[in-house]
Amino acid sequence: MTQTFTNWSGSVSFTPAERAAPASSKQLTKLVKEAGNLGHTIRPVGSGHSSTPLFTTEQTLLSLERLSGMTHADPDQRLAAVLPGTGLRDLGEQLAEHGLAMENLGDVDYQAIAGAISTGTHGSGIGLGNLSSTLAGGTLVNGVGEEVPFGVTAGAPLDHPESDDLLRAAQVSLGTLGILTSLTLRVEEAHQLHRQNWITHIDWVLENYQQLVETNRSMDFYWYPRSDLAQVRMLNKPGDEPELTPEGEPYSYLKKDVVGPNYQIIPNDRHLHFEEMEYMLPFDPQLGAFQQIRERIKAKHRAQVGWRVLVRTIAADQAMLSNAEGTYRNGGLPTMTIALLQNNSLPYKPYFDDLEPVFGQFAGRPHWGKKHSLKAEQLAPLYPDWESFHRIRRQMDPTGVFLNNYLRELFGEEAKTS
Ligand SMILES: Cc1cc2nc3c(=O)[nH]c(=O)nc-3n(C[C@H](O)[C@H](O)[C@H](O)COP(=O)(O)OP(=O)(O)OC[C@H]3O[C@@H](n4cnc5c(N)ncnc54)[C@H](O)[C@@H]3O)c2cc1C
Question: What is the DSSP letter of 297?
């Protein structure tokens, strides 16, 4: 009897028949072939921080924790090759040893790199893409147990530009093209960041939003429904900080003011567990969607929901299933994101269900790893490359060894009967 697996927030729980943690690509390949021969489902898991049932399976749950660490760093080309189970915190430290750093990070660094990339994990910054957009290539084990290289391979003499579509599919694939066994990342020179977190009134943020977004390297804000205060978080290279701050405004004070290496300064510690719904919307400096969300929360949910709402931005990218994909939707314009958070010991469903249609009005695309209710029918029109992605997915995994029933429904594939 294997142990029950429960995700970080506690809302996804299942007991796989087998838990495997291969220590080499060879062992991994064997496991995928065996699962295929038996008609079983094999699902990879990173650190289990997603709260949609992406990794559930009654059969084999595959942990990549033993395939961890950086295998190659190329400071001249700004590329690094890493193994899939590498935690983001370790990755930051290992890159720093080579004078390198990730361009940006999300709110925490608990995730494994392959898990974070596979759902389009992002931070904030109008000129900064999500983590998936830094995936330049790598290797995956497809559904028939073949190792398939794609994109650029750090340290290898030959690139694979012909597999450009495969790269754009693999950048956000929810673990359905294959198991990523090596990832080549585009990285930056190591740099310091100055974090300034200001508490101020939401009205000041609304008045200055466009300028705040445009003049900071990274800027986001939390809105607190009960008090109508906001926390504006700005990240800049020291010396590049803009003049605009809420200093002197009513209620305003500087809550945090620190400088350090980017991989230490961007992520936060999160001890209270929560459920989250986050939607990606076309960038709107007037914050139309946020205004509607705010009104509705104030009118209907303020008594039950004390948790904050987070607003961020992401640069456009080209990955087929990236919810910041901007080539078609926006003509390359950036994305803004709105996230609702709720303490995981309180009911989240009535709150999220009530607000989700507002995101729909703004052509929102859900975060793949956070709560949402969309299925293939609603998702397909939001992604111009939806069909191309699924064509490639079927080529890579012809028998659907990587598809659980949740993914089958998400993608509009028939449910497995046995
Ligand atoms: C506290 C907290 C903070 C968060 N902050 C942010 C944030 O700031 N920004 C943001 O965008 N998201 C954020 N998230 C969401 C989180 O980043 C994503 O859900 C992410 O995918 C989780 O990474 P993981 O390693 O836990 O992967 P998992 O949740 O374990 O898996 C995610 C997906 O990756 C697949 N996968 C895992 N390994 C492989 C592999 N080797 N090959 C192929 N597929 C694989 C899995 O099958 C699954 O489909 C946050 C979540 C929490 C709980």
Answer: I
